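Work Package 3 (structural annotation) set out to generate three-dimensional models for the target panel prioritized at the project kickoff. During this period the team completed the workflow that converts sequence records into discrete structure tokens, so that structures can be stored uniformly alongside our sequence database. As a representative example, we reproduce one entry of 146 residues exactly as it appears in the project archive.
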Amino acid sequence: MIANETLALHPATPDDCPELAAMNRQLIDETGQGNRMTVQELEARMRGWLERGTYTGYIFRLEGDTIGYALADMNEMYVRHFFIRREHRRKGYGRGAVALLFEALGTEEIGLSCLTKNEAGQAFWQSFEHEAYSIKYFIRKPKQGE
């Protein structure tokens, strides 16, 4: 556990997957990514990621209550998921969680992406010192005759 006043970071285990999946569903719904997986499917996916070591999971707790989570690829120093529950936003806990995450990862720089429809997330990440690295596109197959 790594703590910062009342905010603490705990390593996630497969036993945490039901709670992680519920937060993942909220993250998906809020960011407009269109993923239609059920909470049960998200839980199975999350469990697989943690058990295989694809990602390392972290849970952020405030005075013992879970307020968010992160998933990180330790090889790439890339954060796949970062989420703080809505009722805990705009109170400094997101920035505190990022500081704890940097400490846990033992790095000075992390990579991440943020969906274009997630304007609040973009504003949050842009508030940190950053450098744009790439733009990821999803293109559609041209229609016949184009």
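The mean pLDDT is 90.
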